[in-house]
Amino acid sequence: MYLAEKGIHVDRVMVDLKTDEQLTPAYLAINPRGTVPALAFEDGTVLDETSAICRYFEALHPDPPLFGTTPEEIGRIEAWTRRIEAEGYAAVGDAYRNSRPFFADRALSGKWPAMPQLPGLVDRGRAMWDRFLDVMDARLSESEWIAGGSVSYADICGFVAVEFARATKLQSVERPSVARWHAAMAERPSAGV
Ligand SMILES: N[C@@H](CCC(=O)N[C@@H](CS)C(=O)NCC(=O)O)C(=O)O
Q: Which of the residues 62, 99, 116, 179 has an alpha carbon 20 to 30 A from that of 72?
């Protein structure tokens, strides 16, 4: 979604998570962490974090800016992005990974020693998601976009978190300001890619 917003073309290879292709020797030779996405350079360097990959492209192509330009914008976008990752993604991830039989002994994504599922994290993840949505709703009742007056990487992160929650049937009571913002994000051409 970030690349589409920026109009950046990158050669991409799909990795099929449904068949655990990310854990095959061929993929682990590229990214030993066993997660997607990964950005591989010809010199063998690999970036294995989504935000880091986007920051790399932002440094190469600053316009249109999605990580802010003023010190205040940059700080606000970073603060919201980290919160969405640490609270939103974590909540959905905990509820999802600890409840699906497919992830038995693989409660953490990527290549780890056996990691048992902890059933208590399912309810905790749901409660965390609910609280997180309250915070998002309050923020979006006072601001058009998550980090301020224009769309930013924080909105992409937040949108993906909400989509992930919907896909895992986590969505609870509809929040009016989240709904308004979500509809605006869903209309962006980048949401369709
Ligand atoms: N913090 C990493 C997380 C990457 C991650 O966990 N990706 C998931 C897909 S959304 C994955 O690779 N899962 C592999 C697995 O479940 O084994 C990032 O933002 O790039």
A: 179
List 40's β-bridge partners, or say none.
46
Domains and CATH numbers, the chain: 2-60 (3.40.30.10), 71-192 (1.20.1050.10)
- In this predicted model, what pLDDT tens digit does every residue of 114-136 receive, in sequence order? 999 999 999 999 999 999 999 99
Query: Which atom of ligand 1 is the closest one to the Cα of 164?
Result: 10
* 50 touches ligand 1 (CB under 6 Å): yes
**How far, CA to CA in Å, does 165 sit from each of 55, 96, 118, 158?**
25, 9, 19, 11
Whether 81 is in the pocket of ligand 1, judged by its Cβ within 6 Å, is no
Residue 42 C-alpha to ligand 1 middle, in angstroms?
Answer: 22
CA gap 75, 69 in Å, rounded: 10
State the Cα–Cα distance between residues 95 and 90, nearest whole angstrom. Answer: 9
- Please give the Cα distance from 188 to 191 (Å, whole number): 6
Q: Is the CB of 86 under 6 A from ligand 1?
A: no
pTM exceeding the 0.85 threshold for the entire prediction: yes
| Amino acid 184: pLDDT | 97
How open is the CA angle 107-86-168, to the nearest 5 degrees? 50
For ligand 1, atom 16, which residue shows the shortest CA distance?
Answer: 109
Evaluated on CA atoms 51, 108, 193, 179, the torsion sign reads negative
